[in-house]
Amino acid sequence: MKITYYGHATVGFEIDGVNVLIDPFLTSNPHTEVDPSTLRPDYLLLTHAHFDHIEDVELIAKETGATIVATHELATYYEKKGFSVHGMNIGGGHAFPFGRVTMTQAFHSSSFDMGDTPIYMGMPAGFIIETNELTLYHAGDTSLFSDMKMYGERFEIDVAFLPIGDNFTMGPADALDAAQWLQAKRVVPIHFDTFPPIKQDAQAFCDQLHRRGLLIEPNTTIEI
User: Fold this and answer.
1) What does the alpha-carbon distance between residue 91 and residue 185 come to, in Å, rounded to a whole number?
2) 121 vs 114: CA distance, rounded Å
3) Triad 166, 19, 44: Cα angle to 5°
4) Which UniProt keywords are given for this protein, alphabetically ordered (predicted)?
5) Could you read off the pLDDT of 123-169 as tens digits, one per residue?
């Protein structure tokens, strides 16, 4: 499997000729110069509606016809705008051509910034993605929560993408606990350094996980 990290929480992977992109935030992302119009995902997985996770959804979906996978509220919003969608909800799973996706809870918020008043867009989420090669967990924006222990017991997670930025999500200390509870073979820190309040030493975080910590530089593709 090829995995590409674009900075912040934007992660792409390719398996069996299918391309998946999670939380496309590229145009305003200071960690990447990738033009979103050059990407060709077949599926766009969205954890929640905050701008720094959905900025380039419409541009990419118009260019590619990609199916948007998101919570019911967010999927319905895009469906009414004419996009191909697959709505899900917390605890549910669905078999896609690239693997089975289980939508997990995340403790955060989710809204569109529509001027003076944010518009609530349902619950935030994470994804556990079981493919024929690897099982991935993208936690989305979340605090630490004890059900991560259950995920570690029920799934053999090969790679976990965990936010470490603090302030808006869990910080490094809580992410270390999450890594232990999940029993993930590899842990990739995400959602850090993009804005001043979430500045973190990601290498120090990975060092504390020893061989399990995997720091992927933005715009880098690795093969696992």
Assistant:
1) 23
2) 11
3) 55
4) Hydrolase
5) 999 999 999 999 999 999 999 999 999 999 999 999 999 999 999 99
Question: Which one-letter DSSP state was computed for residue 154?
Answer: H
Side chain identity at 111, as an amino acid letter?
S
CB neighbourhood size of 75 (10 A): 22
Q: For residue 197, give the amino acid letter.
A: P
Q: pTM, whole model, 2 decimals? A: 0.97
Do residues 123 and 105 make contact, with C-beta atoms less than 8 angstroms apart? yes
Query: What is the C-alpha to C-alpha distance for residues 180 and 10, in angstroms, rounded to an integer?
Result: 23
Of 6, 18, 8, 5, which Cα lies nearest the Cα of 133? 18
CA atoms of 103 and 138, how far apart (whole Å): 10
Cα–Cα dist 24/13, whole Å:
12
End-to-end CA distance of the chain: 5
Contacts of 164 (CB under 8 A, 6+ apart): 170, 171, 172, 175, 189, 190, 191, 192, 200, 202, 205
Cβ atoms of residues 197 and 168 within 8 Å: yes
Tokens at residue 187, please? Answer: 């842990």
* Of 220, 184, 191, the residue nearest 209 (C-alpha): 184
Instruction: Give me the sign of the Cα torsion angle 31, 37, 41, 45.
Output: positive
Token pair for residue 5?
A: 């990290």
